[in-house]
Amino acid sequence: MTTMREQAVSDLPSPLENWFATRGWRPRRHQVEMLAEGRAGHHALLVAATGAGKTLAGFLPTLAELIEAPTNGLHTLYVSPLKALAVDVQRNLLTPIDEMGVDIRVETRTGDTPSDRKARQRIKPPQILLTTPESLSLLLSYPDSITMFENLRTIVVDEVHAFATGKRGDLLSLCMARLQKISPGMRRVALSATVADADGYRAWLAPDGDIDQVAMVRGEPGADPNIAILLPEGRVPWSGHSGRYAAAQVMAEIEAHETSIVFCNTRSLAELIFQDLWKVNSGNLPIGVHHGSLAKEARRKVENAMAEGKLRALVATSSLDLGVDWGNVDCVIQMGAPKGSSRLLQRIGRANHRLDESSQAIVVPGNRFEYLEARAALDAVEAGELDADIFRVGALDVLAQHVMACACAAPFREADLLDEIRSALPYSALPTETFERVLHFISDGGYSLKAYDRFKRLTKDADGTWRVSHPKFIGQHRLNAGIIVEATMLNVRFGNGRVLGRVEEAFAAQLSHGDTFFFAGLSLEVMKIDLEDLVVRATSKPARIPTYGGSRMPLSTNLADRVRGFLAHPGDWARFPDDVREWLEMQAYRSVMPEPGQLLVETFPREGRHYMVAYSFEGWNAHQSLGMLITRRMETQGLKPLGFVANDYALAVYGLEKITDPAALFSADILEHEFVEWVQQSHLLKRAFREVAVIGGLVERQHPGKRKTGKQVTFSTDLIYDVLRKYEPTHLLLEAAWADARARMTDVGRLASLLDRAAATMVHVDLERVTPLAVPVLTLIGREKISTNSSDDALLIEAEAMIADAMRPD
After folding, report:
1. pLDDT per residue over 448-491, tens digit each?
2. DSSP annotation string for 464-501
3. From residue 334, how far is each of 117, 527, 720, 732 by CA, in Å?
4. How many other CB atoms are there within 10 angstroms of residue 592's CB atom?
5. Helix (H, G, I), strand (E, B) or coil at 704
6. CA 473, 477, 479: angle at the middle one, nearest 5?
7. Does residue 667 contact residue 759 with C-beta atoms inside 8 Å?
8. Of 23, 14, 12, 24, which is closest to residue 57 (Cα–Cα)?
9. What pLDDT sits at residue 204?
10. In this predicted model, what pLDDT tens digit does every residue of 755-777 receive, in sequence order?
11. Residues 6+ away with beta carbon under 8 Å from 68
12. 268: Cβ–Cβ under 8 A, 6 or more apart, which residues?
């Protein structure tokens, strides 16, 4: 009796069958299923472990069809979130194509592709084109896109989890809707290794969100990963979040393996870890660093060195989370907690790209809470539990950009385009009135801007057809289209012009006049925020806001819930190192352990200050926002706040007056009053508006032959922002900016959930002195000041005294 796999092998064209045979391989079950779904013309989502041959499975129907029925036109589009991944896949596809001796052209098209090749690709495209969502959107803005894509058979979306739930996913979803209209028989295929809500992705992938149209294919389970937690000398630090203390032990692991990737959660940490490893690299092993701030040439040089096996270790950030296949990597090291089980699995997958071999990984926790988080991540991976995927309504600025791209390709009828747009899941419930607002925004900029010709990009003819008002707007769109808006850096300077350094605008956007923060070892007060400068003065006031620390990954709710579960179940503590177990036991003895769902708030005095520590487990971003709001409310209540610090697990606020009623500070109306006031007074909303104005096409980043500086873009958008706030507060882009400011910049959803349940779940414990659970967050106070070894020593002595007080049982 013939098995399904044997049948599939016999169904393979002979070049493919022979290629598998010469390598001693047989198609895996999920590859067979993907081939069968392809031959049946079905859409499909493949979820398979790294090393399972996902990419080959996605392309197998394409290769079979092109061998059996060669075509000169474009057959398959491959879309990836990274340019580097497209280049890597091209290399991995060309190898079997060359070895089979078949005539199939594979090319990439990204922002780095030479312009003459781009022009030729539109006239004479390859059979397989590898690209990104932004480059695909630009292709669709040309009139010849109709002929280029009219016979498109398949679109393959790789690493779909990386962008489907964000704005780039919105753009790709709209592009797929347009492609489906141009080529109704086009198949949609998506690939991923880490998907929690498979049905959610099937709906996102499907035309009209019809989940039943998308076949679900699951890969064979691979060998369980081998993950260890590194504990130098068996001790876990009280504070920190980087794992830098373990540099020597990490170097020893690098020496013991062929090739290692050392993942860090931020770019700044990657640079620090790289320097730390060099200091202990007595064997002068070749080590590199890779992150998004490096020049393209530097990144490509490192990637090529890794591909050629010339490096023993690479220190990297999320820039390498996705799919780049270096077969000689045999160990992955995660510095600090991973912040999510899906992210940990994705990173582990960079080691041993072979399904039947365990991936080797080591996690280096930065502190005791991070030890619990690392243990929670390992348990989640073992249980097959991934982080939740949150799908949201499509962004209006992205929609405006897409509508303009469609108009550049050809005039359109309003009802026809709306039907097409609604077939994309993020916009399936788009109200007709909102779509009309988008069209009128593109046609005149809105009520307050309609007197200016430069905003009149679309015109409606007498017969109801919409067309581009002038050819210059077509060139303007193609120069400026894109979803990724580069972060602006601001100079931190005194009024006399002396520059102290630079910070990301995302940090400066949270500040208002009079706020104080630590930077370069100084306590600084904000005087004003200009286009390119954060103007400050030195102050003796205490710095209320924690130091600028760069962007941070949010702690997943999945891992937060597991850590809370550890705290509430002493039976789990026997698994932990002695010092972690003793820490938890003393906390339970001296105070309480919060039950899942409870909000523990402790208050206590220390050295002339009064502290309130809330253990809310909502992540650093949410806690940072909450700290801003609560200190503002404390000010109005006369509680004389001095500042706050936060980590992923807790928020600590301190001041000169005792807090006797924490519940009053956590009331849900803080989001209606202090939050709105904070967003409007700070530059959060203005920064969000700048991004949506650029994406929505209201402001150009580039003119022919000239790119605007960040200062010029800021000047343009700030002027328009001020006009709209004053004369048209309901403008479409202000609405989009509010959505961005609330959801993306402040984790306001998690904040709202916390505040909604605070009154009913708060457990307030008033104590005479600091508790063990409070120590990790309180040791952050003062760290911003460190600029010399002597101050470092003083801080260490202070921390040791605090630990002794916290762990004293009497």
Report:
1. 888 888 889 999 999 999 999 999 999 999 988 888 776 667 78
2. SEEEES-HHHHHHHHHH--S-PPPPEEEEEETTS-EEE
3. 40, 40, 44, 42
4. 16
5. coil
6. 115
7. yes
8. 12
9. 94
10. 778 878 899 999 999 999 999 99
11. 13
12. 549, 550
Please state, in angstroms and rounded to a whole number, the distance separating the CA atoms of residues 51 and 505: 39
Between the alpha carbon of residue 103 and those of residues 35, 71, 250, 693, 718, the distances in Å are 20, 10, 47, 45, 54
**Distance from C-alpha of 111 to C-alpha of 132, rounded to nearest angstrom:** 9
Note whether 275 and 302 are within 8 A (CB). Answer: no
Q: What local confidence, expressed as pLDDT, does residue 785 receive?
A: 38
pTM of this prediction? Answer: 0.76
Task: Please say whether the dihedral angle defined by the alpha carbons of residues 757, 763, 764 and 768, taken in this order, is positive or negative.
Answer: negative
Please state, in angstroms and rounded to a whole number, the distance separating the CA atoms of residues 318 and 455: 38
Distance in Å from the first CA to the final CA of the chain: 77
Give the dihedral of Cα atoms 29, 35, 39, 45; nearest 10 deg.
Answer: 90
In 3D space, the residue among 365, 375, 311 whose CA is nearest the CA of residue 337 turns out to be 365
User: 244: alpha, beta or left, given left = phi > 0 and alpha = psi -120 to 50?
Assistant: alpha
- Confidence band for 325, pLDDT divided at 50, 70 and 90: low
397: number of Cβ within 10 Å: 29
Question: Contact, 61 vs 186, CB < 8 A?
Answer: no
CA distances from 541 to 420, 526, 545 (A): 58, 12, 11
Strands (E), 274-359: 287-290, 313-316, 331-335
> Can you read off the two tokens belonging to residue 451?
């007197």
> Reading across the β-sheet that carries 516-519, which strands appear in turn?
499-504, 489-494, 533-538, 522-529, 516-519
Q: Give Cα 440 distance to the centre of its chain.
A: 32
pLDDT at 581: 93
> According to the model, what pLDDT value does residue 787 have?
35
Considering only residues 245 and 746, tell me which one the structure prediction assigns the higher pLDDT: 245
SS (H, E, C) 719-765: HHHHHHHHHCCCCHHHHHHHHHHHHCCCCHHHHHHHHHHHHHHEEEE
Helices and strands (H and E) in the chain: how many: 31, 28
What confidence tens digit (pLDDT) does each residue in 600-650 have? Answer: 999 999 989 999 999 988 888 788 888 888 988 898 889 999 889 888 889
**Helix or strand (DSSP H, E) at 459:** strand 458-460
Per-residue pLDDT, averaged over 368-392, amounts to 82
Which amino acid is it at 271?
E
Residue type, 65: E
pLDDT (0 to 100) of residue 784 = 43
Residue 79: strand pairing partners: 131, 157
Distance of alpha carbon 770 from alpha carbon 612, whole angstroms: 10
Q: Output the pLDDT for position 763.
A: 92
335 bridge partner residues: 364
- CA dist., res. 749 & res. 170, Å (int): 20
Sign of the CA dihedral running 459, 463, 464, 465: negative
Name 483's Cβ contacts closer than 8 Å, sequence gap at least 6. Answer: 133, 134, 167, 168, 171, 398, 401, 695
Element (H, E) at 706: strand 706-707
Q: What is the mean pLDDT of residues 784-806?
A: 61
Q: What is the pLDDT of residue 771?
A: 96
Q: Which of 465, 351, 473 is nearest to 401 (CA)?
A: 473
Q: Cα(315)–Cα(397) distance, rounded to whole angstroms? A: 36
- Other C-beta atoms within 10 Å of 154: how many? 24
Q: Using CA atoms, how far apart are residues 745 and 747, in angstroms rounded to an integer? A: 6
Angle (deg, nearest 10), helices 557-568 and 368-382: 110
> What's the chain's average pLDDT?
83
Tell me which DSSP letter residue 78 carries.
Answer: E
- Tens of pLDDT, residue by residue over 660-711, are 999 888 887 877 777 777 766 666 677 788 888 888 888 776 655 555 555 5
Question: Residue 742 phi/psi, 5° resolution?
Answer: -75, -45
> Count of alpha carbons within 13 Å of 477, Cβ hemisphere only?
31
